[in-house]
């Protein structure tokens, strides 16, 4: 019996020794070098993001078949497992840059794919913390296979479980496509880089001198490329944002989003809400002020979580709550391009609509849109096909869809922001709303052309006709007469009216034609 105990004690000691050795990752020197760059290690990141002591590691002893030629790589340069965020379970993996640069190998790919398979079976979100030098060259095609298998899992998991990626170091070449296939990408200023071809390749190929930050840094990747939904100032801020984002999302498409009471009264009215919007249709205002006052408010904190705040700023996409229900908000932003729809805004909004629809999150549209942005850049850039994405996404979505027109909805853009014809469950207008095929300044000279040509003072008459057109043809009551809108409401009552409409639509069922899938415009 004593001999048995000694054997077991030795086995346990060996297990502990193996684990401790692997937890050292690439060794103290490389860990120190990682921290000196202002970056956390993979294990430090997991500990910071997850609830304390909730992480359970899997695949710790994985070893690449190529290890015999280049030496053992602890955990094959990726830490995988599960844990909790705010008490809710998640799957997580973090590439370990201290171990062979976090490079992708066949075994690293297998570890991640097994984790994603488990996530799809059990219905929990996947969080990726990327920090890698790319494919492990020494593994040849095996490393490329690892990427290919991962891309397929990202695609299969799309719309099944939320997929969130934080790029926390270099992510280049094929490595950027896994994040691109996920739902949300976060980056950190100063340490995160994402590009297909790095500065050296750009220099060799086209002779252009450019640095990593300018080519694919956190701000550029959002503002110019529209790849990154949030660019944060630190890793800690990044992880706080991920935790907040998850609070609005269900764990999978098999669930409803969590309902959270922030203590705001559903019957609350706001007599000053109407004052935010100028009477002059061409004067801008910040649509976020409407969001802050209509949706659930909470003490000392923002009441919405915005995505892509620096990209396509003419449209706002964010999550908030309405009487505790998680909702997605799509709102024209008059502060940028007068709130018009363009190529980037259409792409940004359509993907957000489809995410909300996939995960049972109602969509609320705040409309103040003058039209599609004109010009050759937009026409030649494909505004027709890009704008059609929004029409497709709204028409396809079966979640509750509510539309409130605040000031104007002109031409095709009125439809593009989810009119009743595209399936909105409830459509409201404020009494200030202008709804028309064209704005009055464009329509009046056409409709009253002959009168204007014969007038002694055509300019004075034109202004009269513009006013006449707005009062007779473009007011919300004309639309209400023909049931294009459900009601013209007092702005002060916006919150309780939206809540009532949302709760009426929560249990709706929509039948769709049998098909494999639709074909979204590209």
User: What is the CA-based Rg, rounded?
Assistant: 27 Å
Classify the oligomer: single chain
| Bulk shape | elongated
User: Runs with pLDDT <50, length 5+?
Assistant: none
Number of helices: 21
**Helix-residue proportion:** 40-55%
The helix/strand class is alpha/beta
pLDDT averaged over residues: 92
Instruction: Tell me the CATH superfamily of the largest domain.
Output: 2-enoyl-CoA Hydratase, Chain A, domain 1
User: Would you state the CATH class of the largest domain?
Assistant: Alpha Beta
Strand segment tally: 17
CATH architectural label of the largest domain: Alpha-Beta Complex
Count structural domains.
3
End-to-end distance: 71 Å
CATH fold annotation of the largest domain: 2-enoyl-CoA Hydratase, Chain A, domain 1
Largest sheet: 8 strands, mixed
How is this structure best summarized?
The protein is an alpha/beta fold and 522 residues long.
Structure description:
By secondary structure, this protein is an alpha/beta fold. The N and C termini lie far apart (71 Å). It contains 21 helices and 17 strands. The protein folds into three domains: 2-247, 2-enoyl-CoA Hydratase, Chain A, domain 1 (Alpha-Beta Complex); 273-433 and 475-505, 2-enoyl-CoA Hydratase, Chain A, domain 1 (Alpha-Beta Complex); 438-474, no CATH class. Strands 10, 11, 12, 13, 14, 15, 16 and 17 form an eight-stranded mixed sheet that branches. A seven-stranded mixed sheet has the order 1-2-3-4-5-7-9, sandwiched between helices. Helix content is 40%, strand content 17%.
